[in-house]
User: Fold these one by one.
Assistant:
Number 1:
Amino acid sequence: MIKGKVVIITGASSGIGEATARLLARKGAKVVLGARREDKLKSIAEEIGKEGGQAVYQVLDVTRQSDNDDIVTFAKTSFGGVDAIFLNAGLMPSSPVSALKTDEWHKMVDVNIKGVLNGVAAVLPTFIEQKSGHLIATSSVAGLKAYPNSAVYGGTKWFLRDFMEVLRMESAMEGTNIRTATIYPAAINTELLDTITDKQVSEAMHGLYAKFGISPDRIADVVAFALDLPEDTTVNEFTVGPANQPW
Ligand code: NDP
């Protein structure tokens, strides 16, 4: 059941996070939006409210542990608890390794890996105590296979596959009933390509997305499906992409 669930969404200011926030709110969830761009969060939350949904927002930089802790507290004070977190914030400045864009490598590690760890660390004590909770993360098809120009981005997403699976196994072993779902999207039309600074890679990716890209609403549907599953069931992996993309 989605109705009434309190769901924190990181990276809720655009793309997949925004689409998911809007859909879950329409289905009766109480959504807590986090990202860095406050103007975007504010207008999305206001629009959700106008449509009769319940949404609050808080500025969040996932690379800061304190911001992650604060948004969990904010969810509890706003809506009385936390049932799920969608660990979705991420960036993809793809480039060949030989370009040595080391600042971008580190940024991807900070947001795509450490940002997720910070979110998990913030919410897990609550989930353990209440013996329930749902952790949903956005990996990528680049977390399942190797792609040129995606050595570091793909690495951050491969990390999620291992981490989320071990988390699921340990929770089952520890009897805390925490569920996980890791989503592996292919080409989804969002602002993600804006983070690519390598001209050639950017052009190639824009071409690919122009040909194949589908709406982030499709990923929102998957998140909603995962959240809707009965408490005794976990579907822990979803690979989702355009039907005509041979990813
Ligand atoms: P967008 O660029 O539209 O969304 C990325 C979101 O992450 C934004 O809301 C951005 O908000 C947020 N974000 C980035 N850095 C931080 C930070 N330090 N702290 C908090 N929030 C941050 O792209 P998508 O919707 O596509 O990306 C969502 C996820 O989906 C990412 O993890 C991405 O890797 C993954 N993905 C996307 C695919 C695609 O084809 N689009 C395919 C596979 C995976 P703000 O700038 O306001 O902080």
Note: The first helix runs from residue 15 to 26.
Number 2:
Amino acid sequence: MRRSIYFFGGGQADGDAQQKELLGGKGAGLAEMTRLGIPVPPGFTVTTEVCNAYYAAGRALPAGVEDEIKAAIGRLESLLDARFGSPEAPLLVSVRSGARASMPGMMDTILNLGLNDEIARGLAKRTGSERFALDAYRRFILTYADIVLGVPRDRFEEALGRARKQAAARLGVDATRLNAAELERKVPDSLLDPESLASLIQRQKDIVLGATGRPFPDDPYAQLWGAIRAVFDSWKNHRAQVYRKMHDIPEAWGTACNVQAMVFGNLGDDSGTGVAFTRDPSTGERRFYGEWLPNAQGEDVVAGVRTPHPLSRSGSLGADAEDACSLEAQMPEAYAELVEVQGRLEQHFRDMQDLEFTIQQKKLFLLQCRTGKRTGRAAVRIAVEMAKEGLISQREAILRVDPGSIDQLLHPSIDASAPKRLLARGLPASPGAATGQVVFSADEAERRAGQGKAVILVRSETSPEDIHGMKAARGILTARGGMTSHAAVVARGMGKSCVAGCSAVSVSQGQMAVTLYDDHGHPTDTITVKAGDLITLDGGTGTVYLGAVPTVPAALSGEFEELMVWADAVRRLRVRSNADTPHDARTARNFGAEGIGLCRTEHMFFDEERIQAVREMILADGEAGRRRALAKLLPFQRSDFVGVFREMAGLPVTIRLLDPPLHEFLPQDEAQLQQLSRAMGVPAKELQRKNEELAEYNPMLGHRGCRLAITSPEIYEMQARAILEAACEVAAAGIEVEPEIMIPLSMTRRELAITRALVERVAEKVFAEKGRRVDVRFGTMIELPRAAIVAGELAEEAEFFSFGTNDLTQTTLGISRDDAGRFLGAYVEAGIFTRDPFQSLDVSGVGELVEIGRDRGRAARPGLKLGVCGEHGGDPSSIAFFERAGLDYVSCSPFRVPVARLAAAQAALAAETPRGPRSTD
Ligand code: PEP
Ligand code: MG
């Protein structure tokens, strides 16, 4: 193991920005800022390796680490001319977690550590404020008891309430009829006087003694060891685990622990604390943006209990109340220094930074600097604008945007023309429109979402314990907190709609009361919204509506289009779409699809009238009956194909012949059976018998795919005819068509030879009837291991392959697609798979078969076109593999097309593939 401690302070640091793995994002940022000469309180980072060693030793600090920490504390003491544990010149520290990737609010932080009764008295003397010292002390006991000693915060609520009442009496406020929230409003923390605080501290200690059987630790070093252990422990707490899973953060990374000299933002009105972003994290606009609170500690801003003020004046004429409260107005010098520092940091790190700062008696300190989290929209705008500013290259801009976050840009927004009833306004914390039933707890959100309901989680403010509910909800509404509150930060990360700090809303006892205002801001009425009522959020504007409001599809920004142009210029893989209707085809084309990679013809049969004909076809006793049913289907199919060909004019359209898992199409109940019996003129009993005869034990491996055509060739005959007639019709209208007919689930050359001959026979007939020919390509899906292995033989018949990685995963792993959901979660949890193999390709297993299929197929037919049309075609990490494998295209659902375009560009850059020729398309 390397050294355990990395010191920073006095303009020098052991670590730097490159060492995120070892020091965590926060530790690396503090080290780098110190090196840059930015004012940072000195401190040291205990490395992630120590965290991992701590767990390896059964949660014990490795030998020697305590001595190294003591030595580092000694360095801090001499730098600051203070002593840890001394009442005369007390040194207090903060102890914070900091992993390689930021996990906002997921792990623990302890402030003001190093206090006991005597030291608190010393601190009072030194700062000249007894109130301040006691406030710091009682906050420390509360946090330490909660995080380190396991005595939950709410056990202290009553004691705090009593202290408020005591203070109220001294202030002459009648507190007898006030509830807890009203009392807090009338007697905020800042009005708690030294006497009330002193008795509160005593009561808190009594509570700790009662709950743990031990007195609160007085020895600062004992406090420090406890806090460091608790920070390491918090790496494996429940909410951190949930967060890691959602963001694919490996548990093996561990967290670092930062111990840093305290500076105080709560030392009076010339002190304060805040958070800032070098650009707007929600829109990406280039403006210095953030929030602060005077006379407060950092946790007050993030906890969202007090709604913070803006940093800058709005620039609008006239001084409104918000402007007057801004840091710019209140402390112009500290503000100017902060503006200078943020500019320097952004230039240095060449990315948008998220900063935490504290001003102690007018002096500015930076406490954190890290790459800022941002919405998908902001990510695109920042990347494009930074490239134009010359701060980064276009290539870097492409690599900066997480393809997954593009999804957010494609979310629907509120239909501006729809009638709607405004309920309230809050902060536009995370974009997107969401409608759902109101729920008031995370558990309830999870429960109702589990029943398939869309829900909006409404809370006074969220805390990390709410994360599972936020995950389950469509949107989040909070009554308190700013743009950097927990709800705002987490929702933005999840890409969920969120309206925060909606002060017209108050939540209590399972309902929310909403105050309505007139245009002049005067309250007019109050209405009550109960659990289960529908509301709609517009996270882009911060508006809340009563009831369900219609939404419209996303409009993409100019920067997005620009980024896509850059991405397309470096991308080698083509991107097509899976689309089964003219409407989907149009959506896909609008998103930049370069053709259809999979049109699932059975999906064209889902509507009422058609499914009846399909059932007739399936249940018909002989060929004649089947042909009668097929004759009904032919016109539907033909007109659908005409629509799809028109939408995809000039681009290839791969149509897969019927591949219905039969069980999805059989009559499901008595009523359907009766209806069918009437339509077919066959007794229901007879149909029931046939139905039972067709039932399969394992329909996924049953009479599916081209096996259907081997037993009933007339089905593929009808489909081939519908495709070719449609192609001729569209071509006759002067529109270029490129039909590709694809055979599903083939495993032998002979299957392909038979179906190919069938298609060719039909084609010749149709061309003769129509008096024109169109080029049509014949190909197959590779969905079975055997197909990949005998790809050389299949390529003798097929002009293209499309890897159906859904089935190829199912058949390679021997895991049924329909049943996998029940146990694959446990496989991911146990680390057997890093991700669900049906979402993200199993590269070493299924991927190997793809490569075998590629090599053998291309050896037999040079220039064989290769694509992918399973779900993996829209998954960025799978796309990286398909790029490395040298396939020609991926095909994915329409909304994932932009994701795939960007992912393909990133994959090309990562592989630095020379832009070699691709097969003609
Ligand atoms: C596949 O198996 O990957 C595929 C695209 O086909 P389907 O999902 O329709 O079985
Ligand atoms: Mg398939």
Note: The two ends are 54 Å apart (CA to CA).
